[in-house]
Design brief:
mainly alpha; two-stranded antiparallel ribbon; 5 helices; elongated
Length: 118
């Protein structure tokens, strides 16, 4: 698949700019590899590319949220401390990814995917 189409799908989901997304090309490549390995034999990739790209974008976004959830989520200003729950984004990304994988179940091998956490 075209990495830049995956990047575009990721941008739509994440709201990040093209410049910000340039830092995450490895996520798009990894998502592409994961999906490409799971395509059922006999499936026309070109015909199914729009869905495959969306699934890869969702996988890349989930991996991005997973990385972000590991970063510091607390901000302190004077006596006020704000704690951000980044798990909300992670859970939303996982749900979206899983829903797209379900939609693509006719064209992807039906087994536990390497990229699904249980």
């Amino acid at each position: 698949m075209d990495i830049f189409k995956i990047q575009s799908a990721f941008m739509e989901i994440s709201g990040l700019s093209e410049q910000e997304c340039a830092n995450y090309l490895n996520l798009f490549k990894t998502a592409d590899i994961q999906i490409s390995k799971k395509i059922k034999k006999g499936i026309d990739i070109n015909q199914n590319e729009p869905l495959l790209v969306e699934v890869a974008g969702a996988i890349a976004y989930y991996m991005y949220c997973l990385m972000q959830s590991k970063k510091m989520a607390n901000v302190s200003v004077l006596d006020v401390k704000i704690e951000l729950d980044k798990n909300i984004s992670l859970n939303s990304a996982k749900k979206y990814r899983d829903e797209l994988l379900l939609l693509a179940s006719d064209i992807l091998v039906d087994e536990n995917f390497d990229f699904i956490s249980t």
